Amino acid sequence: MKSATLEDIQHLCEEVRTIVDAGLPLEGHLADAAAGQGRRLEQLAETISEDLRSGRSLADSLQSGQLGAPRMLSAAVAAGIRSGRLSDAVEMLGDTARDLIELRNRILQAVTYPVSVLVVALGLFCVFIRQFLLRVRALFDDPDVLPSDLFAWLTDLDAKYFWWPATVPVLVLLFAVIWFLSGRAQSLTFHGAERLLFLLPGVRGLIRDLQFYNLTRMLALLVDQQMPLPEALMLAGAATGSPEIDATCSRAARAVEAGNLEGPPRNHQWQPGELPPMLLACLHQPEVIGAGLTANDSGSRSGQAAERLSSIAGFYRRRLDLSLLWMKNVVPAAMFVLLGGGTVVLYSVSVFWPIAEVYRALSPP
């Protein structure tokens, strides 16, 4: 979805929720809600509208091979229509986009000042310090004035690879490109160039908690509406945007239907592509695995299952909020120390070390 952004997805979800709350037919107004949000998003809305008019199941359309944000939107709409709570299902997708927008803002706040310090220091280095270093290096051409081996090696390396300061602007430009890509709607899946943001401390765990939260929250909504667990797992997995979780939920749904879903092993470390251990343990509870499977289910079993799933979703939400708070308060200081402090140290060394080497070389033995 190249022309759509996270803000477009958030606005579209808000408009869809407004349409549903107003009691208007979605099939006649979904395309209008997507107008102006990018051509690919408009085409997706038109496709969903056509499926609704023709009576085709959106759950079936998820098997058409579409990936990324289109699959997430289709899954959210399908889950909402299937459960009778379209407004809540679409709101969850909007919340996901909003959480990622907030994450991007936190990252931008964390790196803006350190990168500014780095760029200014690089400019001063190229204009002033490097000219000074060239003159110092000329002093050591005298065979009677010998610098230390390390200093001589570094000055020779600087002379050989004179272009090395250009790597910093290239890295800044690369970050700008990644930043632009991380604002696409496709970044909801975190399977493109925006994965480089995982290099920042805490981002990988934050995204994992966000996907687990969306999975369990959607499952709680669908199970509460007495949807059979296998179908709920399929739709909830598709709505997370993670291909690994999507595939894992599909396997779990087939295992539930076959009655051979395995529980979480003891002392097992979670690995990517597996269901969250808390969710997997919850799925083995009788009231959860049997929710919605019997026609005479009065809803009490589904209600108990939804409460358990909501509790797990609340746990991941609290952990997600703590991660965002950590990103707000700790990461900016860490980035300032690493980039800003490191730049100041290297800048000081490049000024005073050559002077010390000159005095040492000119001093009597």
Summed up:
This protein is mainly alpha-helical and 365 residues long.
Task: Give structural notes.
The structure is a single chain. Helices cover 72% and strands 0% of the residues. It has 365 residues and is an all-alpha fold. Helix 1 (6-21) packs antiparallel against helix 6, helix 6 (86-139) packs antiparallel against helix 9 and helix 9 (203-224) packs antiparallel against helix 14 (300-329). The model is unreliable at 292-296 (pLDDT under 50).
Secondary structure topology:
Blueprint lengths: L5 H16 L4 H8 L5 H16 L3 H4 L7 H15 L2 H54 L9 H12 L6 H15 L21 H22 L4 H12 L2 H16 L18 H7 L2 H4 L10 H30 L1 H32 L3
Helix pairs in contact: 1-2, 1-6, 2-3, 5-6, 5-10, 6-8, 6-9, 6-15, 9-10, 9-14, 10-11
The SSE order reads HHHHHHHHHHHHHHH
Mean pLDDT: 75
The Rg value, from CA coordinates, equals 28 Å
Strand content: under 5%
Q: Give the class from helix and strand content and strand pairing.
A: mainly alpha
Tally of alpha and pi helices: 15
Overall shape: it is: elongated
Sequence stretches where pLDDT stays below 50 over 5 or more residues: 292-296
The major sheet is characterized as: none
Helix content: over 70%
Gap from first CA to last CA: 70 Å
Say how many strands there are.
Answer: 0
Question: Please, what is the oligomeric state?
Answer: single chain
